[in-house]
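Predict the holo structure. Ligand: fe (iii) ion.
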Amino acid sequence: MNVEIWTHCRVATLTANASVAYGLVDNAALVVQGDRVAWVGPQSELPAEWLSRCTRGHDAGGALITPGLIDCHTHLVYGGDRALEFEQRLNGASYEDIARAGGGIASTVRATRAASAAQLEAQSLARLWALIAEGVTTLEIKSGYGLALEHERKLLRVARALSRDLPVDVCTTFLGAHAVPPEFAGRTDDYLDEVLRMLPVLQSEGLVDAVDAFCERIAFTPAQTRRVFEAARALGLPVKLHAEQLSDSGGAQLAAEFGALSCDHLEWLSPEGAAAMARAGSVAVLLPGAFYFLRETRLPPVALLREHGVPMAVSTDCNPGSSPCTSLLLMLNMACTLMRLTPEEALAGATRHAAQALGLTDRGTLAPGQRADFVLWGLDHPAQLAYAMGANPRLQTVFKGRPE
Ligand code: DI6
Ligand code: FE
């Protein structure tokens, strides 16, 4: 097996409980065997055994190396855009007003249904490239703009196909319970029956890694969300939840009851919800892009999450309505400026904790046995990743041990 050694670098390992901030190793060496990290530490301590087995050496030129970034909450595959609704909001309409008037998610559902798979793929690929260009090596993509079997299938197939020839892994999440489509208007429970019919079919086609729902006044109640979660549990699928984004409906407690991988948004999270998440080991996924773009004023309770030791992830929420964003680095900055995360918390949120939010234990840190997904940056210190706005200091990405 190939053994490749990277030297002349500074490595932010992001390992949990590291004794130094970011798990930073100066004058480091990083040994890759096949698609895995075999060893990381100070170059002066590199075991001779690895040197003798080395098949290729890489001089990193003094670069900073971090784990590949992980965007753990996106709705990246969709048709059309919602720039005109953005304009309506600037003229006074609220996000909820627009949704109730048949716009919002419903307008993206119309555009997504009308698009062919090839059109969806082309549109989504441009967004995916933007993420990859900033060092993303794993991302999640949710369905939820098809809301009918053939269209949810089309969207999820596009999501799966996107990573085919690219240095990135895609995890797919079924979000059939995102909104009630027009043909089921006023018949939410009938639509949920349909969601529960779609789920096992899509799962049997290998299109579903996890199940999500939008638990909110303008979407599904906790009781309705529970039906979705029970179906997921029966199929052995992990769950996540869009919870407490616009109001506190107790979604976090419900999700925790099902051992949710994550609860996402959380602006209205209550102390009881945070305690439940801590008990369940759910990750809090913070989405500063949506907070910013909807001009929310209520911040997710970061201090409370810290108090309970709930791990925090940071993600783009890339979607046409509430976060038309394809920059995870900008989200790190906004998680700090808007939500007061530290740059270290923000980076852990796009690496280690983002992996946890996807149920992935083989990535998100740089340690022996982990996937060799990492990024070389033209930076001196990892705090610079969250500091700059609109910069892209990426030099090179290594995916599954292979340099691009
Ligand atoms: N919450 C969100 O922020 C996105 N979905 C959700 O459940 C917004 C989706 C959209 O407006 O298209
Ligand atoms: Fe979302």
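DSSP finds 16 helices and 15 strands in the chain. The mean pLDDT is 97.
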